[in-house]
Amino acid sequence: MSLINKQTLSEQIYQVLRQDILTQKINCGEKLTLKVLKERFRVSQTPIREALTRLVDDHLVVYFSNVGVTVVTFTAEDVEEIYQFSGELDCVALRYSHENNNPELLKELKAICLDAEKCLAKRNFDKWKQYSDQFHLAFFKYADNRWLERAANKMRAQLTLLSNLYQYNGNVEKIHQDHQGICDLLEKGEVEGAIEAMRQHYQRDLAYALAAI
After folding, report:
1. Model's pTM, two decimal places?
2. pLDDT digits over 9-18, tens only?
């Protein structure tokens, strides 16, 4: 890798490593050594340590005394708890966003689903993944509750990592159908049905994630 802009060393190293972990270019359980990272980025230890500290805060890497930094791994129990909690957060965000009665929510959800469908037709799964994330984030945007959004953001990295393990294994069409179904229920005013559909959506994603690990 070429030398990184020295003005933003820590931030750029953090972003590169974070993306590599989320996309599993750096695998779960892999050890990150200062020696290897110094050779890769051609920088001193200080910005690397700062980047690793942020990744620890994201719960993407774990520091073990006398061992060093290792990319997080997941047990079945971890995955179940992550999807259960994330699903309930999305359900709360869905309810709050509906109660705020902002017509822009449904408009945005429909646009996201339409753009995602176009990506599926072109088999552009990387772009589809972005719309898939936007679909869920829209509820937090219109829920207008900072504490709810902060709680969701704490879970976002682990959820993204896990979803990247299974979303490209023939599951994208099913996931898109779930999103479209939730949108359709909201358009009909069936909020409780949409909330239940969201829970079922997360249960299906949980099954995909457990199979992937």
Report:
1. 0.86
2. 899 999 999 9
